[in-house]
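Continuing the series of single-chain predictions for the mutant panel. This is the parent chain; the variants come on the following pages.
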Amino acid sequence: MTTNGGHEPVFCTVVPPHVLDKLARAEDPVLAGPARRTLQRDAYERTHRRLTTVLGAPAVPAPPGARPGTPRRTVYDARHGTDLPGSKVRAEGEEPGKDATVNRAYAGLGATFELFLQAFQRDSIDGGGLPLDATVHYDKDYNNAFWNGEQMVFGDGDGEIFLDFTIPIDVIGHELAHGVTQYTANLTYFGQPGALNESMSDVFGALIKQYTLGQTAAEADWLIGAGLLAPRVTGKALRSMKEPGTAYDDDVLGKDPQPATMDDYVRTGRDNGGVHINSGIPNRAFYLAATALGGHAWERAGQIWYDVLTGGELTTQALFPDFATLTAAAAQARYGDGSEEVQAVRKAWEQVGVRTR
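Parent structure:
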């Protein structure tokens, strides 16, 4: 049985398992301990998500008087426990409080809602005004953030490797975008479909950040998770869409393993077949298309990617060439055969070694 009208939710984290695995093997227990506990907690939540999928999650009806096109945000505080959602600390329309983490989560939910509404005329992540719920201060020294199919959850980080996970707005957008994928193409979370799933979240996470900052494609840093790494880490972010494989190179974390082209595609059984690793390839394709077109990335490149995600032709098992071909077709449908947009999209995929048919 699937939930939400046939859309099967998956458990998606922003920090890849290979990063936490590396940390868990560190000689320093201050670094290894939180990583091991995070991996254990992630494993539990992943199993819980599967059980919820089997049993069926309850639908969330709109309350009386709810207006289409307006967000319904609620932020909860787990108070360093693991019971979800926790205690309600801020509801829609309430003024900011003293907890900066709560305020950032609330603002990030709103920024995500606004981008999808203003740029793509989508009312919340399900297109039908779904409430946006988030829990902060989850567990102790928890080094991750995740979408569990129903809500967002943020850890505070251990302060040694990772800081508060509400700091980068693109992390918030990334996880909520998994919800958009869940309600649309529902890409299988393994191998190339899983890497596309992760890439879609990076794309929309980056667009939310750029939209909030008012940046053009040329002005953006194209980093995912900038500001998340603690000062002791040699790195700038979790991932780079512009230059996959360059986000970090650290004695403890190791080197960013993301490939930029199909020549370096990583075949692995770990991380659900490398979903957080090989996502670097479609990430770079989007970056190349967006910068070639210029202006605000959500206006043309983002629109094309959104058209494919929501158009109904993207199958759950889509491979990179399938997705690339659909982006070229979407560009042609929206902007015309031989248009600048079609050429930019085809060239972007060619540059990363993915063929369009």
